[in-house]
Amino acid sequence: MRVLFASLASVGHTYPLIPLAIAARDAGHEVHFAAGEAVHAPLAANGLRPFRPADSFYEIYAEDLEPELARLRPDLVVHEWGLPGAAVAASRAGIPGLWHGFGRLVPEGIGLELPTRNAEAPGRPHLDICPPSLQDKEFVATEERIVLRPVPYSTPGALPAWDRSRPLIYLTLGTAFGTAELLTTAIKGFAALDASVVVAVGRVRQEELGDVPDNVTVRAWVPQADLLPHVDVVVHHGGSGTTLGALTVGAPQLLLPQGADQFANADAVTAAGAGLCLLPGEHSAEAIADHVRKLLSRQENHRDAARAIAEEIARMPSPDEVARRLPEYIAR
């Protein structure tokens, strides 16, 4: 079977699809991946045959993909929620397709078309990587969902060293929303904590942070999927990948949402008791330190709530299990 995956050319949209694409490859299927060149390196490293349709760099429109569908003639197209053009192209070509989510159903008003309202590709099932207890309840009740365990993915690399005798805090603001001001504020708060801290600054230059406390290690990038199993608290922007990644290892989290779907993610995590949230305007070194202390405290129930969700995630079907079922969706 030939399977074409398609995503926007960003870490947050491509990486959630990679575990299933690898599993499909391992199941003996021929896998191709349509995306802009910015994400080709990890796709190629995993043998997923990446290519850039037409002149697309980030978004792929239906017209970009249609010639590639005629060329590849895939049996199935797996298109992520941020790429309705791929769904439309597959529908026009009469090729079965599956939506692939990257977290909770995206809320309205964040610049993405809701996949549940795509009139040109109606009725397609959703590969849903969000644990059901956190997923949008109307979406769960009304859409056909294929439950798929979220598996954190990051490109391989060496972990930074830290003092393993103390709790580990991981700070990231993702690849799009980080600012030197907020990172510096958080790091100042961490200086008051008896903990080791690893900071991934992303697009922010390390020199913008100035001098950092001795308990803080700053890197431009860390292999997040490898670091998360060691982390006691995750402080982050509320992106879907980091939110789910922290939940898979049962780590409580402090969310500092900035935009996109991050506020909805923060609402879901805090409602479940698995974390705390500070909104813009509430950020101070003292508030961040105080909230992290609460998350580290064994007298609070945030860790228990996070571990309960981790157990829920562990019961979800793995990418290998779902990959073996993919031929079922061709025969419909």
In short:
The protein has 332 residues and is of the alpha/beta class. Helix content is 34%, strand content 15%. The chain has two domains: 2-150 and 316-329, Rossmann fold, CATH 3.40.50.2000; 168-314, Rossmann fold (3-Layer(aba) Sandwich).
Characterise this structure.
The chain has 332 residues and is of the alpha/beta class. It starts with a strand and ends in a 7-residue tail after the last helix. The chain is 34% helix and 15% strand. The mean pLDDT is 94. The protein is built from 13 helices and 13 strands. It has two domains: 2-150 and 316-329, Rossmann fold (3-Layer(aba) Sandwich); 168-314, Rossmann fold (3-Layer(aba) Sandwich), CATH 3.40.50.
Question: Would you count the extended β strands for me?
Answer: 13
Helices, by number, come to: 13
Following the backbone from N to C, one meets helices and strands in this order, namely: EHHEHEHEHEEHEEHEEHEHEHEHHH
Helix/sheet category: alpha/beta
Tell me the strand percentage band: 15-25%
| Bulk shape | globular
The residue ranges in which pLDDT falls below 50 over 5 or more consecutive positions are: none
**Superfamily at the CATH H level of the largest domain?**
Glycogen Phosphorylase B
CATH topology annotation of the largest domain: Rossmann fold
The level of helicity is 25-40%
- Please give the alpha-carbon distance between the first and last residues: 15 Å
Q: Briefly, what CATH class of the largest domain?
A: Alpha Beta
The biggest sheet amounts to: 7 strands, parallel
Number of domains: 2
Q: What strand line-up does the widest sheet have?
A: 3-2-1-4-5-6-7
CATH architecture field of the largest domain: 3-Layer(aba) Sandwich
Query: Average pLDDT across residues?
Result: 94
User: In angstroms, what is the radius of gyration?
Assistant: 20 Å
